[in-house]
Here is the input.
Amino acid sequence: MKRLSFAIILACCTLAVAAQDAIRVNYKGAKPTISDFITAYLAPSNDEEDGCDEEAMSGIRYAWERYLKGFTHDENYTFTLDSKNGFAVYEAKYNNDDSELLIRIEMCYWNEADGKHKLFAYNHKSFTNGKYDPGQYDGLTFMRYNNATKKMTYHSDDGVEAFKETRSPNVEYSCSLPHSGKDIIVTCWERNGKKTQKTLKWNGHGFSY
Here is the structure.
């Protein structure tokens, strides 16, 4: 698989999300929960010309639909939801000859300091035999929710973008969303096998690097 092709496809997917109208978040009660954000984000688009959205999310959509019916896993995947901490994780494993592929998708949200917005994150990671091995759908996506309109739109975080500008061609980066706490942990995977970590700190409206 060629990294250039992956980058082009991922860019197309991201632009497709950005070009969509705002996504409405339906919920019951006083405020939306992580389940409401997941349902809204995973809802199929009505404008999928190249099938990108369907291919990227078919697995987790299937898992989420089964979770809502009371099934948390099957032979190939697990889905865990922590409503109290506003966090969910989907993991799917596939065996191919001597290799094991792991897909891990994390989702969570933050309450912004202005009391008017929430930030929802969707984080896709791929591993081969325990080592980070990014594919065409890997990456971190943010959606900003407006309490007044009850809709969320694609959002680019300045702190995360500032970190991306430091990227080295010899290093791959993966993000881990917080199950508890508020900061994002970034793991730097060097080609020699060495790993280091950095922290993107939540500042009330985004992340500081």
Q: What stands out?
A: The longest strand covers residues 99-111. The chain has four helices and twelve strands. The first helix runs from residue 3 to 19. The two ends are 31 Å apart (CA to CA).
